[in-house]
Amino acid sequence: MATAPVTPAGEEEGSRAAVAAHQAGGPEIAFFDVETSVPQRAGQGYALLEFGAILVCPRRLVEVACYATLVRPADLCVVSAASVRCNGITRDAVAAAPSFLTVADAVYDILHGRVWAGHNIVRFDLPRIREAFNEIGRSPPEPKGTIDTLPLLTQRFGRRAGDMKMASLANYFGLGRQKHR
Questions:
Q1: Rounded mean pLDDT of the chain?
Q2: In 2-148, at which residue ranges do the beta strands (DSSP E only) sit?
Q3: How many Å separate Cα 132 from the centre of its chain?
Q4: Torsion on CA atoms 145, 146, 152, 154, rounded to nearest 10
Q5: Which of 22, 112, 119, 180 is catalytic?
Q6: For the CA atoms of 162, 164, 168, 174, what is the dihedral angle to 10 degrees?
């Protein structure tokens, strides 16, 4: 996966509408997900390997912009066999990807000042975004609010839906077999 520019759905990249639509702090809801390496030893942190987001108009519930990119970690060795089993992202896949420093402005613009939504974002994705920005010496984006589907679904369905991972939830709701990414 290459870096996909932040563009509004149905708009040409670089148009005035495209620029206005993805500036930080807009009214859209940012649905996002990150994929990371799996730490192999005590004290080893996570390395961001992929970021993807869509901006959704809260009034019309339509996608207005999207952004997705693989991210090359500082050390390719952090992409272990356990990481590949977890998310399918290989060293070869990220070797030619941009560094987080290169994509940080786009990530910031799509997230900052918006409501953030996703599955398990409060306990996992949000800390990984903050860590990635701290590693490059920049202030991280801040949400206007968060909508985390994990506690919402856990409260509503308890453990009837299984381990609450996305694949288990897809099966529970009859959406068929789903891959992690």
A1: 84
A2: 4-7, 29-36, 48-56, 63-70, 115-118, 145-148
A3: 12
A4: -140
A5: 180
A6: 90
- Note whether 176 and 166 are within 8 A (CB): no
Angle 157-118-116 from CA coordinates, rounded to 5°: 130
In the three-class reduction of DSSP (H, G, I as helix; E, B as strand; rest coil), residue 17 is classed as helix
The answer to whether the CB of 79 falls within 8 A of the CB of 89 is yes
- Is residue 5 packed enough to be buried (19+ CB in 10 Å), middle (13-18) or exposed (0-12)? middle
Question: Would residue 180 show up in a list of annotated catalytic residues for this protein?
Answer: yes
Each residue of 14-72: pLDDT tens digit? 333 433 445 666 789 999 999 999 988 888 899 999 999 999 999 999 999 999 999 99
Q: Within the chain, what is the greatest distance between any pair of CA atoms?
A: 48
Sorted by sequence, the CB contacts under 8 Å of residue 85 that are 6+ apart come out as none
Q: In 42-90, where does DSSP find H-type helix?
A: 81-87
With tokens 């977890």, the residue in question is 86
Strands 29-36 and 115-118: parallel
